[in-house]
Amino acid sequence: MTKAFILFLLGFVLLIKGGDWFVDGAAGLARRFHLPEILIGATVVSIGTTLPEVMVSAQAALQHNSGISYGNAIGSIICNTSLIAAITIAAKPGPVNKKSLYLPAGAFFLAALFYSFIAYTQGEFKRWSGFLLLVMFFVYMFLSVREMQQGDGNTETAEEEQEEQPLWKEILLLVVGAAVIAVGANLLVNNGTIIAAALGVPDSVIGLTMVALGTSLPELVTAVTSLLKGHGSLSLGNVIGANLFNLVLVSGIAISISPFAVPSEKLLMGMNASLLVDIPVMFGVMAILCVPAVLKGKLYRWQGILLLCIYAAFTAFQFLF
């Protein structure tokens, strides 16, 4: 138990330091190439912060643990939106570049509709659906790169004047920061999962809560660090991009490795609780986050407060019912 506690603290320290380096590198790249921070967050930063989900879900798939693979993806989306984005919005609401949200938000809802269609109509994810999700990932990245190439200096970037670092240093900060974050998150996830399993918590619930929260810690660290450094748009883009990647990259890899059925170990009113609660909550929290931002170009404090309440209720439901 002492060893687990020490590793937990070490993981926490690594997350904080890695997040600091990661945000500095990402913000530096956005300034250098005059790119919208939202778009940088929805691509480069999101890939880095989604690494823990990729590793955990791939490992679970190799072990044929469908509950962890499924729960981690859906749970991370709910956690990213109703906890991480909610904290950022509640602390510092404000305007966003809504044009830069069209691609990542639209791509997320398209992927989510496909994912949900398979879950509700088939009840299982076959290998072809995993391949198709991965195709969506590559198409999204292609469109994002093209959008960046068409961008101009008038888009929203970090406005403050800072001494520009060498390009190699910004890339190094980004890569090393992502690696340190992934290692720190892995230390926390492993110990949290062991504790939850010892308490007899079902795999799908562990995936939806403990593992999802643990693998979302990079997004949380990035969000808080971005907020403290004045890069709120970077944080928002990271959350939306990470949510998309949880469906098309994390789930795509897991399903391609080992196809699985929608977990049905938890029932509510005689129905699969995942289909009745988890997927609708996923759509609901993303709608609350994205609709005002896309329509009004602004985020409001009430969104953050509402999302935090939903996350608290969702977590309580997973453990009490």
CA-to-CA gap between the ends? Answer: 29 Å
Strand content: under 5%
Fraction of residues in H or I helices = over 70%
Shape descriptor reads globular
List the helices and strands and how they pair.
Elements: H1 2-33, H2 37-49, H3 51-62, H4 66-91, H5 102-121, E1 124-125, H6 127-149, H7 167-198, H8 203-215, H9 217-228, H10 232-257, E2 260-261, E3 267-268, E4 271-272, H11 273-296, H12 301-320
Antiparallel strand pairs: 1-2, 3-4
Helix pairs in contact: 1-2, 1-7, 1-9, 2-10, 3-4, 3-10, 4-8, 4-9, 4-10, 4-11, 4-12, 5-6, 5-10, 5-11, 6-10, 7-8, 9-10, 11-12
Structure description:
It is a single chain. With about 325 residues, the protein is an all-alpha fold. It has one domain: A middle domain of Talin 1 (Up-down Bundle). It is built from 12 helices and 4 strands. A two-stranded antiparallel ribbon has the order 1-2. The chain has a two-stranded antiparallel ribbon with strand order 3-4. Helix 2 crosses helix 10. The protein is globular, with a radius of gyration of 19 Å. Residues about 155-160 have low confidence and may be disordered.
